[in-house]
Amino acid sequence: MSGEQHTLALDASPAMSREALFESLAWWEALGWLRPLDAHFARFLAEHDAHAPAEVLLAAALASHQLGRGHVCLTLPRALAAPRDVLSLPPLEEDAPHETVPLPDDFLRGLDSATWAARLAESPLVASSGPGTTPLVLVGERLYLRRYWRAEQAVATHLGARLGRPLPVESALAEPLARLFAANAASDDAPDWQKVACTLALRNRLTIISGGPGTGKTTTVTRLLALLQTQALAASQGDRALRIQLAAPTGKAAARLSESIAGAMSGLDVEAGVAATLPREALTLHRLLGARPDTRQFRHHAGHPLSLDLLVVDEASMVDLELMAALLEALPDEARLILLGDKDQLASVEAGSVLGDLCANALDQGYSPAACEVLSQLADTEMAPDPACSPLADHVVMLRKSFRFDAHSGIGALAAATNDGDVVAFRQAWHAGYADIQWLASSNAQRDVERAALAGYRDFYRRLRDGASPADVLARLNDFQVLCALKRGPWGVEGLNARIAAGLWREGWIEDPQGWYAGRPVMVTRNDPQLGLYNGDIGIALPDAEAGQRLRVFFATAGGVRAVLPSRLDACETVFAMTVHKSQGSEFTHVMFVLPERANPILTRELVYTGITRARQRLTLAGGGASVVESALTRRVVRDSGFAEWVAALAWPRD
Ligand SMILES: Nc1ncnc2c1ncn2[C@@H]1O[C@H](COP(=O)(O)OP(=O)(O)OP(=O)(O)O)[C@@H](O)[C@H]1O
């Protein structure tokens, strides 16, 4: 696998040789530029097609690799324009081996998109859309692994079927609608977007309500459920209530949704009979769909659909393309779907950005004349119609006013500046003297970050030492949390977790900074339906009074506190510090957000926004200086898919 040999292979012919490609794949895999899975996929295809040209196999490896970076497909022109970006290579000056290691540029030089697409189209490994069994599907200049092409088709088909064709809305709902939103008149939010969302949702089988933290998504959806239930009970003379289910992508998000729904219900002005039929408990999507161990298949699917009339999915930005496809396939055609989320947050860890794509044009469009008419008649809300809007427009509402972050909130000001990519406003927010934000910048930042993290956790460990019960301890887990932008390095979760554990051990709060110890907070990293634990669930190891003080890991679940043997948790990691990606769906009273010292392509506007908005009351920003944040604010996450194109091309059917 020497660089010298490789250069010879490349120079020998402008066309790629398979041997040279396999050699390079091995290099890229060894350097961590490519996942073993991606290189393996190309080798697997080569075994099945002894004549597959190298550029087809390279495209297959890159398409697989793109999935790991959140892209649903490989977009050929984009790969040709910036081949190193496809492998997300670190900046080359930091990367010593590159002089001897072939780069993707070497392979793609001289190739144009049309030729590459033509080679792919000729290959028996590739079909150009439509049903089939080829492992790869080429649509125009986008190359998919078949599974993802199928998921994209399913999502577009099912969502498309829910657009247009508005449902009838009883005019009698005008009165309860006015009553439920009467208090909103006092706020200066005009129009009342919460009321708009609720009114439009009454006539829709698909509604997307996007808003930042505390903009009233849960409040709005609770009122909507009450109205729909009022309508259903009235229509059936109290006989048939809607079967409503609440769900979220992670256990943590489901628990939060259950909690906020309960809060929103307590202030709800509806008849007791209606209130009694509203759901209180949210499930994880995996549990709702019936995840089974060791298989990607769910118990519910098109042939065995979910038995419900209405589904609310919170934190929908976290739902990846495949899970969305599975969910839509299992949802009865007639059921209503309401997606809640924040379009500006990071997209799902897995491939796709369904919520972001659905909301992409929402702020630039108004509503159709028919929707404006309903808003006027039912909600007493006048809006200028937009006859040129997309058929999706009437299904999407942005809530714009945060009831959590007011004008005195530095967190709110930073979040807004970040979303706008406004570096000047971001800087001004730091100098405006807000009491809830602090920037830890000093000459010895690493030591200061460690000290601040230990100070943040001390109170928690004091309670633990004072013998707080597992339930009490679990309730305080969200008081303070360190978030990192990166996984590796001194500023990443791995380095910080080790240093925080060592610091707590030095101070005598924990007995051992390695392995399992009392006080170790952990996050589950893989769904385990048998244990009833899901990716993202957070627990803490504590001596169990009911098991002779032996160590157990305690989790707060919908059914109460659960104790699990540490040895049964084979996929979990310590979370004194967690990545911003993993923190999605959670909020903490005080967040310490640690940025790396130097700018990094991983830092994007969405990542900074998500990190900042995990803090409810206090934010400490640490590490990287102003230039690091400012460069992040100018970088946006772009996820390649055909779904965004589908959304952009949506048109009303012609009469
Ligand atoms: N129109 C309103 N007027 C006054 N307070 C409101 C209004 N809407 C929501 N709130 C309050 O704002 C807070 C946040 O509301 P809610 O939980 O519905 O927002 P959310 O968008 O779901 O928040 P999260 O970011 O937690 O998901 C709650 O305390 C709620 O009572």
Strand order of the largest sheet: 7-6-8-9-5-10
Radius of gyration: 26 Å
**Shape summary:** globular
- Cofactors, ions, other ligands: adenosine-5'-triphosphate
**Regions with little confidence, pLDDT below 50 for 5+ residues:** 1-14
Strand content: 5-15%
Q: How does the major sheet shape up? A: 6 strands, parallel
Number of contiguous helices: 27
Mean pLDDT over the full residue set: 89
Helix-strand makeup class: alpha/beta
Give the helix level as a range of percent: 40-55%
N- to C-terminal distance: 63 Å
Number of strands: 20
Organism: Chromohalobacter canadensis
EC number: 5.6.2.3
Keywords: ATP-binding, DNA damage, DNA repair, DNA-binding, Exonuclease, Helicase, Hydrolase, Isomerase, Nuclease, Nucleotide-binding
Domain UvrD-like helicase C-terminal: 575-621
Describe this structure in words.
By secondary structure, the chain is an alpha/beta fold. The chain contains 27 helices and 20 strands. The protein has a 6-stranded parallel β-sheet with strand order 7-6-8-9-5-10. The radius of gyration is 26 Å and the shape is globular. Mean pLDDT is about 90; it is low at about 1-15. The structure holds adenosine-5'-triphosphate. Adenosine-5'-triphosphate binds near residues 184, 218, 219, 260 and 404.
